[in-house]
Amino acid sequence: MTTAGSSSSAKARVAIGKNINVETYEMPWVEKYRPLLLDDIVGNSDTVERLKVIAEDGNMPHIIISGMPGIGKTTSIHCLAHALLGDAYKEGVLELNASDERGIDVVRNKIKSFAQRKVTLADGRHKIIILDEADSMTSGAQQALRRTMEIYSNTTRFALACNMSNKIIEPIQSRCAILRYAKLKDAEVMKRLKEICEFEEVKSNDEGLQALIFTAEGDMRQAINNLQSTWSGFGFVSADNVYKICDQPHPHKIRAMIRECQKGDIDSALARVGELWDQGYAAVDIVTTIFRVTKTVEELPEYLKLEFIREIGWTHMRILEGVGTLTQLGAMIARLCKLSTAPHMMTL
Ligand SMILES: Nc1ncnc2c1ncn2[C@@H]1O[C@H](COP(=O)(O)OP(=O)(O)OP(=O)(O)O)[C@@H](O)[C@H]1O
Ligand SMILES: [Mg+2]
Known about the structure:
Blueprint: H1 7-11, E1 14-15, E2 21-22, H2 29-32, H3 45-57, E3 63-66, H4 73-85, H5 89-92, E4 93-96, H6 104-116, E5 127-131, H7 139-151, E6 156-162, H8 170-175, E7 177-180, H9 186-200, H10 206-216, H11 220-234, H12 239-246, H13 251-263, H14 266-278, H15 283-294, H16 302-320, H17 326-340, H18 343-346
Parallel strand pairs: 3-6, 3-7, 4-5, 5-6
Antiparallel strand pairs: 1-2
């Protein structure tokens, strides 16, 4: 953990009225708890280990880190650059992200002139150009990078971060070492959340933290953001409060609905879907939550679970094709009930 004195802001919390906490000058926790050292990065240990070897060795190849949002790609690149350049970070690093202009002109002027610039660095170290969210660069700009990467490679190395590595043109991919970050495991996110809860003196219960993990789906940024929103909004992190903040259908209700489908109780199951619909959830949110919950319902026998998932998958596809109506969801419920009803009853 790299957050010396982090509980000071907790002390800066001022209570106004009953149970309402107002955070004074509170930084977003995602930034406050952004790791500064490679050692502090959670998860993807093999890949992080490779970065540590590069940091020790000093000879950084061009790299691309790709993976889902919020799992530590930008953070890792910054940690690596800090580890490599130390105090020379300011002069030795050029960072461009999607908020900067990154067309061909920028590659021709800004990137090239930085690559040509003379900067005194420790022996064996290189200047680093960080291109964050590189998948949003036009392919023209990427093309313009090709030769630049080669010509200046004895003094300058590139570090690219992106969500989809296939949006990076092949010639650049072939010049780089590609590191893939996987979604973070639930236990890894949980550990980090618990650490933050301790630092910030957040009151929470186990179900609340589990709900944060469920809604974040391996995205650390979302988990931390939702933790902060729930804590500052409600003053207690419980499952109900988390689902209110995240605006997702409550998995407990969905679970009950699946159990009703299993029993063939179509009226109750339809009533539940109707209730979610009336609350304004989109069909696609309902169906994705149903899918994710179905995977975890232990009471469902394996064969039935497989059949359920198949039906839910078809419905998901139809909804994505544009037919996201209550009737569509109702039809899915009917099919799920039919699947679990004993065959002899169907002939009645
Ligand atoms: N592996 C991790 N270990 C610790 N904290 C993390 C990790 N991943 C993400 N975080 C937290 O989430 C925040 C965002 O991480 P980061 O900016 O590195 O995400 P990213 O992978 O670059 O996402 P995007 O694809 O959206 O750019 C960080 O400030 C940090 O607080
Ligand atoms: Mg990023």
